[in-house]
Amino acid sequence: MKKKNNKDAAVGVRLRKDAGLTQVQLAALAGTNQAAINRYETDRAAAPYRILVWYATYFNASLDYIFGLCEEPRGRYVCVTPEGAQEVVQRKPDWSEFVEACFTPGSELNRRLKQMILKMGEEEKHK
């Protein structure tokens, strides 16, 4: 999976520099070494899943931002207030993509909760 998208390498550099960190400092925080960080940032190696999740957590950035899929660090979907949720539903009647992004596969509770939310969205569309 090398050289998939050099946007994610550029985002990694931007996140690191905006935080005022050197590659050595970032590597120490992430539990890796400077050479690995350099390979990720110069797109000579793909960062492993563990590092990508660490970046997202440490820099409070979404993975879609890290992969260069959007310009907003918080991602395409941001938290909304209960009042704002109604506006989102009305503005985007097919919000199943949003719901899919909110749940981790594999949990029975998540599966049931996701189904309930999607059903509520469908009911709301038909009102």
Model description:
- The chain has 127 residues and is an all-alpha fold.
- It contains eight helices and no strands.
- The protein has helices at residues 6-18, 23-30, 34-41, 49-59, 63-66, 82-91, 96-102, 108-125.
- Helix 2 (23-30) crosses helix 3.
Write the H/E string, N to C: HHHHHHHH
What fraction of the residues are assigned to beta strands by DSSP?
A: under 5%
Largest sheet: none
Task: Give the structural class.
Answer: mainly alpha
**What integer value in Å does the Rg equal?**
18 Å
Number of helices: 8
> How confident is the prediction overall: mean pLDDT?
77
* Contiguous runs where pLDDT drops below 50 for at least 5 residues: 1-5
Shape category:
elongated
> How many DSSP E strands?
0
What share of the residues lie within helices? Answer: 55-70%
Q: Please report the distance between the alpha carbons of the first and last residues.
A: 46 Å
Structure summarized in a few sentences:
The protein has 127 residues and is mostly helical. The protein has eight helices and no strands.
Give the tags:
mainly alpha, 127 residues
Topology:
Blueprint: H1 6-18, H2 23-30, H3 34-41, H4 49-59, H5 63-66, H6 82-91, H7 96-102, H8 108-125
